[in-house]
Amino acid sequence: MEFKKMESNPNFVSMQESMLKFWEENNTFEKSVEKRDKELVFYDGPPFPTGKPHHGTVISSFMKDMIARYWTMNGYSVPRVWGWDCHGLPTETQAEKILGITDKKQIESEIGIDKFNEACYNIVANNNDSWAAYIKEMCRWVDYDNSYKTMDKSFMESVLWSFKECYNKDLIYQDYRVTPYCYRCETALSISDTKEADSTRPRQDTWCIAKFKTEEVINKKPVYLLAWTTTP
After folding, report:
1. Other C-beta atoms within 10 Å of 93: how many?
2. Strands 221-229 and 181-182, how do they pair?
3. What is the pLDDT of residues 37-49, one digit of tens each?
4. Most buried among 96, 105, 167, 214, using CB within 10 Å?
5. In a domain, 208, yes or no
């Protein structure tokens, strides 16, 4: 195989555009997921449809793409389909702002559940274009056109089926736990719901201090360096 000589000052934008065009014209991604002797299905933890893409989602997307490409290059067919995490609370909160709702009772007494649900559906559909352009610019390989949504009946049925299978295998247990609760939203809160504001309640992060001995000596005593870290 003959490799082209790399320019000393390459035009990365031009290279990206050329590569994207080549992939699109030659259906490179589609060919990579054609049926092979070995298959590895990659489940992508999908983003919320309520937010626009931002720099914080870049590194995780690159890593997901890298893992799938690695197994593709090892001879596997690696189907990966884009998805949307239609988690109820962020979508409902955004719908309430759009509809001017300040009290949960307004949903039933003034708006109507059907119109409120319609507003939620519209929110899920509105961010698709911005994410599509974002993923393309990243050169990430993923089946975007046939994306799934966690609000799809087929998806919810598959979750219930999985839970039933776990229950049949005695892998499900019942117990108690302390869960943050929002009185305004009238629901329990997950970590994802609270971490953006870092919860609002005092918390002590896990941390440790490591001591490193140096070759320095002061007043006949060894000198140490102290390193403090929150990721021990």
Report:
1. 15
2. unpaired
3. 999 988 877 777 7
4. 96
5. no
